[in-house]
Description:
4 copies of one chain form a homotetramer. In chain A, strand 4 (113-115), helix 5 (124-135) and strand 5 form a beta-alpha-beta unit. Chain A has helices at residues 15-26, 44-54, 65-78, 90-109, 124-135, 148-151, 157-167, 247-260, 285-301, 304-322, 329-341, 372-375, 385-410, and strands at 5-10, 29-37, 58-63, 113-115, 140-142, 180-183, 188-191, 221-228, 231-237, 243-244, 265-271, 277-283, 347-354, 357-364. The first copy, chain A, folds into 3 domains: 6-180, HUPs (Rossmann fold), CATH 3.40.50; 188-364, Argininosuccinate synthetase, chain A, domain 2, CATH 3.90.1260; 378-410. Chain A contains 13 helices and 14 strands. Chain A is α/β, with parallel strands linked by helices. In chain A, 43% of the residues lie in helices and 20% in strands. Chains A, B, C, D: Its EC number is 6.3.4.5.
Amino acid sequence: MAGKGKVCLAYSGGLDTSCILAWLLEEGYEVVAYMANIGQEEDFEAARDKALKIGATKVYIEDLRKEFVEGVVFSAVQANALYEGVYLLGTSLARPVITKTQIRIANAEGCDFVSHGCTGKGNDQVRFELGYYAIDPSIKVIAPWRIPEFFERFPGRPALLDYAAKKGIPVFQTAAKPWSTDENLYHISYEAGILEDPNVTPPKDMWKLITDPEDAPTTPERISIHFENGKPVKVVNKGDGKTCTDGLDLFLYLNHLGRKHGVGRIDIVENRFIGIKSRGCYETPGGTILRAAHVDIEGLTLDREVRRLRDQFSQRLSEIIYNGFWFSPEREFIMAAVEQSQQTVSGTVHLKLYKGNVIIEGRESAISLYDDKIASMDIAGGFNPGDSDGFIKINAIRLKAYVAQKTKVTGSGF
Amino acid sequence: MAGKGKVCLAYSGGLDTSCILAWLLEEGYEVVAYMANIGQEEDFEAARDKALKIGATKVYIEDLRKEFVEGVVFSAVQANALYEGVYLLGTSLARPVITKTQIRIANAEGCDFVSHGCTGKGNDQVRFELGYYAIDPSIKVIAPWRIPEFFERFPGRPALLDYAAKKGIPVFQTAAKPWSTDENLYHISYEAGILEDPNVTPPKDMWKLITDPEDAPTTPERISIHFENGKPVKVVNKGDGKTCTDGLDLFLYLNHLGRKHGVGRIDIVENRFIGIKSRGCYETPGGTILRAAHVDIEGLTLDREVRRLRDQFSQRLSEIIYNGFWFSPEREFIMAAVEQSQQTVSGTVHLKLYKGNVIIEGRESAISLYDDKIASMDIAGGFNPGDSDGFIKINAIRLKAYVAQKTKVTGSGF
Amino acid sequence: MAGKGKVCLAYSGGLDTSCILAWLLEEGYEVVAYMANIGQEEDFEAARDKALKIGATKVYIEDLRKEFVEGVVFSAVQANALYEGVYLLGTSLARPVITKTQIRIANAEGCDFVSHGCTGKGNDQVRFELGYYAIDPSIKVIAPWRIPEFFERFPGRPALLDYAAKKGIPVFQTAAKPWSTDENLYHISYEAGILEDPNVTPPKDMWKLITDPEDAPTTPERISIHFENGKPVKVVNKGDGKTCTDGLDLFLYLNHLGRKHGVGRIDIVENRFIGIKSRGCYETPGGTILRAAHVDIEGLTLDREVRRLRDQFSQRLSEIIYNGFWFSPEREFIMAAVEQSQQTVSGTVHLKLYKGNVIIEGRESAISLYDDKIASMDIAGGFNPGDSDGFIKINAIRLKAYVAQKTKVTGSGF
Amino acid sequence: MAGKGKVCLAYSGGLDTSCILAWLLEEGYEVVAYMANIGQEEDFEAARDKALKIGATKVYIEDLRKEFVEGVVFSAVQANALYEGVYLLGTSLARPVITKTQIRIANAEGCDFVSHGCTGKGNDQVRFELGYYAIDPSIKVIAPWRIPEFFERFPGRPALLDYAAKKGIPVFQTAAKPWSTDENLYHISYEAGILEDPNVTPPKDMWKLITDPEDAPTTPERISIHFENGKPVKVVNKGDGKTCTDGLDLFLYLNHLGRKHGVGRIDIVENRFIGIKSRGCYETPGGTILRAAHVDIEGLTLDREVRRLRDQFSQRLSEIIYNGFWFSPEREFIMAAVEQSQQTVSGTVHLKLYKGNVIIEGRESAISLYDDKIASMDIAGGFNPGDSDGFIKINAIRLKAYVAQKTKVTGSGF
């Protein structure tokens, strides 16, 4: 009895979406389950069996890791995207990849509906649904955690466990952790539970991906990252010579190194799109290394004024991505300029990783804007010091006029 | 014979400004030497004797440390000022304090001229002179390193040493280092010499202030920083209970801790105001800790939209300061807004310092914008999940219209 | 029988809010009617009688014209606020004045609820309610046009007329116009009805306030507007010598002149906050003159860089005001900077009004930044042409480096 | 005797550049004269004879009108470029076209030098020379008005007239006007002389291009402008049916109409790049009409958020162009985004021209973002009013939190 139509459900294999799957069936929908492999730690085949056992008509498991890294993460690297000066947008960046494929499957399967397990207070519901609507304006969304029949029936974890038991849904986790996580190959996030007090220090055993800097190796490791047009194209370990050139490979290798050396943990209070402040802890090992290197190679290869304009739009782009507007004209607008700017961002950065530190040790580029002769303090290098004289005097004209005015208005100058 | 008039010279005690002092006298000027104590390591009394011995009429040594920290550094902290995403502006911030007092002395001494030892290619000449002209539009500037008679006579260090020997100027340094430095209580900079190749890794013994993270203590140290209106008002060491409340004291104590724990080194290629790229290495121990803490307490206490506007103006403010426009209407304009925003930035941040890492462990405020009930994933807290539904649908309207248009224009949607 | 509590209703005297008043009573609320006099053409005493006749417990009629002009309109003038490059924000600016007093009355009367007659698709509902919630976070809002019981019962004007007849509500208008209007002393807006086709030219008889330029006097009229700190303090008619110095008086006089000379009509497609495009026609006579004059006096008295920063702020401020966020930290943040900037904006602008044109004929200020000697093409005025040489050469350094890089990357320069 | 090398001189045919030509020859240079036809009123053949008579080796007269309109002016239209909110950048936009061809000729002729007749205080010297250096970093510039030997020898017009008489240079003008002008097909500027007092009203006979609105026809004229990708592709006169589709033709036709109907005069105090305020009067007939139409069609076809970002970019772009940085990476950066945005800016605007007014009467587009059903106040159009409820409540969350905080900090809310 699937009289209400067909739903493509973003399925994680966990308790929540398993109960949602069962509930949708109970409500009279036919359900196609969809799992995106974006690099999270997961037993996909066990999850497939579980979904089928609960009653999904079909289960799609899509490996989106390469698309995620090369199509989205590297664009964010080009833009130096960073939310509120601190957060690398790990969850936000995964959403466009997931939603795009979910709509493709929904359309292929003839689904009228898509569904997800996001809560009603968070950012993810917005990101999922804006993506859905932008890609397919006619799609209908079922968000159970915003439907009173659902959220009043399942006011907490015990109610879900009861329902799972009743429906014969296997529950793998023996004990739930006192926080929530979201993981992909770019990052893992921790929030809610004990973290809801922003003054509580996260327990040491919460952090899952990255070695505590205090436990990281006492010997640093040195690498080089090669960029072309603002995207990484090669990573070389200067110690053992290991070299990666494939986008996904090199990213996973940077993850491995960041995790080993304690690089990429943060703990912040951030501003959600819906106007609430929330506390999040994040581990983004490879992304942290990559951003430091990209910012550095831009120092050598990107024009000053372009950098300033780009930096203003990076801030706005980060908000756009955080708020779920990846599929929007404003993202296209900004990225057109960013891509133009990255034509010159090619070169190599040399780095040292040590106990949480990403230390730049040098950089080089065949198309550097750095001119050692003109920069030199010791030689003229085609530079006439007298030019500075005129430059300063012209720049002072405006200030001299202002201080005279200020003195008239306030009675004193600076 | 001082027929050309009286000069107030910004004197450092080093070889360059000692030769400039002698040269100005030789040229027929009377010279008043002025040394600003902004926290640099210096034997001020020895420098005084030296200036008098060379022939200065008078020597002023002014302790500007408190004014520097409380009047300038803390304003930069309020604004999260950071040049090109990395550099804390240590040299730029000292200049306004130095120039203001130099003009005060020049006026008191009836000097027609001020002079400095900055080179003709750098930022500092601009910062000094824009400050001079803004404070006293009628002042005249003598910049010997831009005067052919001077710079052609002294093409390098040997010529200066010869001149010093001839003039009986004592030279303290036995061997010059292969780089230049500029130090104050906020930071030390290293540039020029071997650093002119941006791919050369700075030698370990170059770094003067901060312990190499590899040599820093293996035991972390925990502190709290208390803010009022965006300025630090108390630092407490949670281990030994040491507490500082005076602005200068607490800043020097943060410096001590940062230096001990390897916090605050960077190595960058930056864009000078005059359009040249240059490579600089910087150590800013206390400032690095303070900025991390201030950014964090703003997460808890500053409104999202104010933060975004402020962040755009922080970028511009950093350029203004870097380029030497501290005494300008544009700085006053931005700071008026920043000060308005900091009225709510009060609270305490708890931090751990460990081998180069500044790790936030929690934060609290009596005027927090964080509402744990509304932020909670487990309880409703006055939040109706159905509201998100309308919020998302309204936000999607624009995207749906756009994708229809995009499809008409390009033949496909997202 | 008022068992549901007490409501303070923003009452206009028109059909919609009269029916809402009757309906609220029918639903079991006690209703206090509130009319804001913000300069609209209205028979307030007739409206008072009508509200009392329908059943309002009390009717407040508040003259907010002076507060509107001096507290809000003049702030917008200081900021050169303009939405989407064209629209002077006439409706948006009135809302804060109305809501603030409405909440004051609601609190004084012990009302739990406030209500208004705004539709569910427009901007005004947002502006009213964000104002309510910001001023009194505990207030409850009744928005009948978003309540299905109401809007389904009254699907169009005939249903409202029926209800009015049934309830004995007098209806003044004999025939409704095929568009809607909103009027205050700053402007009148026209939208909806036949204007919903953006390609329909508004009929000549729609425009109510301003003489059609084709019918305006063939003789121009000349005035002077005097500003202090960016606000107008005196208007003088150079023909007849008429002089106004009171804020409200001078604004109403500028309105009179603008209406007479055909100044201040626009017709645009604008972007509503809720993501819909809509077409609006507006008449803003005095505001159009005032903005032209203020922009002009800033040319003489405001520093270039402050102007640029302020212009960026102005765009954002206009969005803030348009979207209903007058009572917000972001408006306070921006206005702090704007007020700082306006300290120097004092002087007099001379204008000619003629058939839709506002023609600047000259300007003067005792604290002008304009220096005729330095600006002169004929005399040196303390300017050394050689300084421009250095200025240009320094500015070219960056471009020369870039074109070399561009040539390497793309194979050709500019 | 041309021992010093070969110069390509930007030659206008006027007194200044004729004297410069003679002086360069006298100084020992060989001179190739170059005249750009950018639509100014000029007898080019007479000027050619004059240059040859004075002693130019060769004279190039290049018709750059099409390149100017289609390559530069229409890009500015796409961006809505406007300097300081008022000025359409008529002089600035012509410079890139002139300099690019000048360098092409200089290279073809083997010139080591280029020269121009710009003064040492203005913007044009900067625009010419930054263009020269960006296109050919190795070019050398001779700017006589900044060379003491030249400007001290010719302190005013009488000295130039003497020199011209001595050199046998014919002087066409019998009496110089008490202001300077610069003309091209986009605009004419007036500055200096009697205009140096910003409070002097320009005399009626100064204005050369545009009919005084008071003398313009009393009958309005109606036209349509068709845009594709933000550029005008067709202009139709609705009265007589005249139609233009070629870029240059339609622009010249808009000029004709603007001049006839008194459209496009301004009088401002602007900020020069070198920090001086100056007073300029401008007539830009076609450009004023085109900008009004382009802004309007964007209302119908450009996404709200893209428009906001683009508007910020437009302000910066206008500064870039005004300051002479057309050939720069920052212009390329911004234009990449602008071009992306203009993909959807296609449609037709209907306008009325009348005595200085450009009145929009309607607009239409096959790819409009305007949806009359959803915009309608009368029908639901797929819009659920309840959605606004959630939208407003979510937007209020942040304000409610802020007012509670504000009350704690300041003792009162809004």
